[in-house]
Amino acid sequence: MNARTRWFPAVPGSLPEIRAFARDLAGESGLDGDDARDVLLVVAEAADNAVRRAGASVVGVTWEPRDHAVLLTIEDDGVFDHAAATRPLGLPLLFGIADELQVRPGRPTWPGTVVRALVRVWSRAGVPDLPAPPGRPRVLVVNPDRVSGQALAAFLQADGYEATLVTTIDRAVRALESRPALAVVDLTASHGGGTGFAAVARTSGVPVVAVSAIEPAAGLADVHLPKPAHPLSVLTAVRDLLHPHP
């Protein structure tokens, strides 16, 4: 599927059409469940900001498929409203959903706000996961809290690992098919489903760093870290398992 762009009048009556446009593209892309919900939320929230708070006349939505991701661009010809961005939803919601987010605010002297959001997805069939670059072991981070999970993944990336965040066990199982070097699993994911996933991962030969307030049963994980676990503690465990000292 190639990139698709559509422009709409920046009026409240266009919002259902914008949501329908994104919903149709999600269906064409084979997205379902949490993946479809995430991309629809990003499009709907950014478009709502453009229509109701930017004083724009038009709003454009671009959908660009990437490997295990969708790059969404929502742009208008209005002026970014900083006061409105502090409401309960808005930018905080977008930062919580997107794996990468860029906002170029429109100003009175330069109208035109552009929001670009990269959302990782796992339900699109037929798209192989990209292997980690040579020398960069791939670490799978399973955490239901997207914000803390992204922070940990970024921390591991900075230390030279290729970190992939998933927030549900279904996505984690799919990601396991591409054989990560190690999995960091919050055992509370999917209402305790992280425990079962940790067992499956270890059976598959993938080392597991388990994070939970209660120590798991023996043999469920290679390392247990009490929750909340400091990123440095997680990094130390990852290093020790992937690069053991002689």
Compact summary:
The chain is of the alpha/beta class and 246 residues long. The chain has helices at residues 15-28, 33-53, 91-97, 146-158, 169-176, 189-203, 231-242; strands at 4-9, 58-66, 69-76, 100-104, 114-120, 138-142, 162-166, 182-186, 208-212, 223-226.
Essential attributes:
246 residues, alpha/beta, Heat Shock Protein 90, Rossmann fold, five-stranded antiparallel sheet, five-stranded parallel sheet, 10 strands
How does this model look, in words?
The protein folds into two domains: 4-120, 2-Layer Sandwich (Heat Shock Protein 90), CATH 3.30.565; 138-242, Rossmann fold, CATH 3.40.50. The chain has seven helices and ten strands. The protein has helices at residues 15-28, 33-53, 91-97, 146-158, 169-176, 189-203, 231-242; strands at 4-9, 58-66, 69-76, 100-104, 114-120, 138-142, 162-166, 182-186, 208-212, 223-226. The protein is an alpha/beta fold. The longest helix has 21 residues, at 33-53.
